Amino acid sequence: MTYKLQPIYQPGGRSVVQSLRCVRCSKLTKSERLDPSCEGCGGAVLFSGQPASFPTRAELDGSPAGVWRYRAFLPPVSLGQVVSLGEGGTPLLRSQRLGKELGLRNLLIKDESRNPTGSFMDRGSTVLLSLAKGRGVRECDCVTTGNLGASLAAYCAKAGVRAVIKVPPNVDRGKLYQMLAYGAELDATPGRRDAGRHGEALSVSASNPFILEGEKTTGFELAQELGWKLPDVIVVPVGTGGHLTMIWRAIQELRAAGLAEGSCRLLGVRLGTPFIGRRGRGSGPGDGEGEPSPAELESEPLFGAEAASSVSESGGRTVEVSPREMIEATGLLARTEGIFAEPSGSSVVAAIERAIEEGFVGPTEMVVCVITGAGLKDTRSVTKLAREARKPEPAIPFGGAGPAMGRTKVELLRLLQDGPGYGYDLRAKLSADRVMSTASVYQHLTELEAAGMVRRRGTVTAKGRERVFYEITGRGTALLALAGRLEELAGRGANPPSRRRVRGAFR
Hints:
Layout: E1 18-22, E2 28-31, E3 45-47, H1 57-61, E4 92-94, H2 96-102, E5 106-111, H3 121-134, E6 139-143, H4 147-159, E7 162-166, H5 173-181, E8 185-187, E9 202-204, H6 209-215, H7 217-225, E10 233-237, H8 242-256, E11 265-271, H9 304-314, E12 317-321, H10 323-337, H11 343-357, E13 366-371, H12 379-390, H13 407-416, H14 423-429, H15 438-450, E14 454-462, E15 465-472, H16 474-492, H17 499-504
Parallel strand pairs: 5-13, 6-7, 6-9, 7-8, 10-11, 10-13, 11-12
Antiparallel strand pairs: 1-2, 1-3, 4-5, 14-15
Helix pairs in contact: 3-4, 3-6, 4-5, 7-8, 8-9, 10-11, 14-15
């Protein structure tokens, strides 16, 4: 996806006819519209070139933080037309506790949930609405499942532009409340896919090339915060593919400008097929067991081919994570770093854990995880987290001072009956409804070891990480025999043995 150095804009901020390339058929299109599409097939388009000139590091370092610090790389907007809510300038946080859990010494988080409406979409909205205001646009229409609608509504309110937003009936309440608060007119008519355009309204979607140009600043900002040295790995949710593609384009432009040093690999994160439980139902974190919440559903991959090309050019790869893994990662990120992200954003944590175990990421490499949105925007997942936190596992008591045995510990013991194992290997073998992080598996193993149910067999170093192998003890085998007996009695409807008899079996 290498593109030529050719001017798109005239000096002095005056635009010329825009050169755009279709991501579907590669046809070049020239348009001055703010909602352009391919003249041939109607597909989404991206700008086909780079700025005619670049700023210096000193100029960028001396400019106020935020999206408009990178105005030399963006469509030209006069200062009086900028519609801004203070977007960009989000922190790049060193994450020692989460890094320790995952086995990474140099983990950083780019927290895009700090943007005005809680997501990276604000970077694009400020660019598009600034241009719209300059052209006298009076109304924006949009079809959205959430984050784009909330962001667009806020920036329309700031610009004094009417916002008409078509949402699905099951749109998450957190985002719906945002749109209502910003004064957007909402349409939840089932079956309608258009936004109900009125006259000369600007039709907006996540594929708008001006929105994508704003999202590109995530990559600029990340590099600048690292002193213009690129990290080894950048982990980004794929979604439509647009954000990931534009982060890679930012890296290319920084290299072309001589601003960034080093190279980096992209790790794209996609939502895979939900795990299927024992009764044949998915175990997604939506209202029903088999239905993920809207925020966790994979967005239409309009830029899927572009994202795949970006990942390939960087020497990276993509990883699929399940809805349950996202929920687990959401809790882990919140507990270790105090960052509450929506599951689609937390997916990067689940992905990096797998990438480490598979050897794609080394323990000493610098890794940046891009968290794309705030957790309170996804109220269904908040409910799921709360439900999981207060729901106790069915437990089997045993003698001594240790805790009762829940289903996870019993299943780990059964897996160890087949031979010694280590955390990641055991995690991969757990039942679909027992999905959790490797760190959580090791916590269960530590508790089993304290109870005398397992012992350490030894350690090995593989792919730069030390793996501790565990094996089951006689005490653990006795507990499994008891668990089997309890399950048999429960299946026959018989009364279980008293707690005194259970404790006596372990004396």
